[in-house]
Specification:
This protein has two domains: 116 residues, NAD(P)-binding Rossmann-like Domain (Rossmann fold, 3-Layer(aba) Sandwich); 176 residues, NAD(P)-binding Rossmann-like Domain (Rossmann fold), CATH 3.40.50. The protein is built from twelve helices and twelve strands. Strands 8-7-6-9-10-11-12 form a seven-stranded parallel β-sheet, with helices on both faces. It has a five-stranded parallel β-sheet with strand order 2-1-3-4-5. α2 packs parallel to α3 and α5 crosses α7. The two termini are 15 Å apart. The relative contact order is 0.13.
Length: 307
């Protein structure tokens, strides 16, 4: 029987479907040292963002040679040493389309939270404060949203922003069809200078620690809003806090952090940051779609390899 290890959980319907197809599914999280031993006994491994499948884990799996497939239930695969896996005959897949709508909705939700001071107003009211005059907000309609990256999630975000009456700029083309979008392509420097809201939709960068740092923030409009639902570390956290303190950046929204769980005290306690604990894909609908894609990948992969 083909054994599948789901280290970060899996939608119940996907587990039921795989079981009905004759696969054994084990849902259990293992710390890295324990995972090195456990992975030797499985044919496939399904992970989310919590589990890191680095070279040492793959080397352990190679000792038995049983592991043939690693699936990231989500968009990015930067928590998997995918090149090393492929070099040693282990296939790496992800589910890039399943969570696009959910992450886009979270980005838009954070934009509303910042524009109307929803997060901080909620917090201060629970402390007995009634700051009606203090929390004057702005409307999203008529503002310019700049999208750094224009893959599936960014395109979904653009569609929703346009319905709200926002003008959308984007940089880094993702395909030939990009020119057909109503959003306008510009270079990164132009986007940074012209956007009222800037949202990041790119993977972790191999050539640098961050994309938005002190120099990039200095080039932005005064009072800009920043959103990161992509990957932790794309925004330099101390530079962001400095800009928030100075008023250069009006507010920021973060779903991802350089270290998770986040331990940066400046980030955690800054009143101008709207925060969520990496929940971009955490909707019932997205999890069902992710589970469905995982089932399809596993069924196709082991069906082909068993022929």
């Amino acid at each position: 029987m083909i054994r599948i290890l789901a280290t970060d959980g899996m939608d119940a319907s996907a587990v039921d479907k795989l079981t009905s197809l004759g696969f054994e599914v084990v849902e259990q999280f293992f710390p890295p040292e324990q995972l090195k031993e456990a992975v030797k006994e499985f044919d496939a491994m399904v992970v989310r963002s919590a589990t890191k499948v680095r070279k040492d884990i793959l080397d352990a799996a190679l000792e038995t040679g049983r592991l043939k497939l690693v699936i990231r239930g989500g968009v990015g695969i930067d928590n998997i040493d995918s090149a090393y896996a492929k070099e040693h005959g282990i296939t790496v897949n992800n589910t890039p389309a399943a969570s696009s709508a959910s992450v886009a909705e979270l980005a838009i939700g954070h934009m509303f939270s910042m524009a109307r001071n929803i997060g901080i107003a909620n917090a201060t009211m629970r402390n007995g404060e009634w700051n009606k005059k203090k929390y004057e907000g702005i409307e999203l309609s008529g503002k310019t949203l700049g999208l750094i990256g224009f893959g599936r999630i960014a395109k979904e975000t653009a569609k929703k922003a346009e319905v709200l009456g926002m003008n959308v700029l984007y940089t880094r083309r993702s395909g030939e069809d990009a020119q057909e979008e109503t959003a306008k392509f510009v270079d990164l420097d132009t986007l940074i200078k012209e956007a009222d809201f800037i949202s990041l939709h790119i993977p972790k960068q191999a050539d640098r620690d961050y994309v938005i740092g002190k120099e990039e923030i200095a080039a932005m409009k005064d009072g800009v809003f920043l959103i990161n639902t992509a990957r932790g570390g794309l925004i330099e956290e101390d530079a962001l806090c400095d800009a928030l303190d100075a008023g250069k950046v009006s507010a920021a929204a973060l779903d991802v952090f350089r270290e998770e769980p986040c331990k940066n005290e400046r980030i955690l306690h800054h009143p101008k940051i709207s925060m969520t604990p990496h929940i971009g894909a955490a909707t019932k609908e997205a999890q069902m779609r992710i589970g469905g894609e995982i089932v399809q990948i596993i069924e196709a992969f082991f069906g082909e390899h068993n022929e």
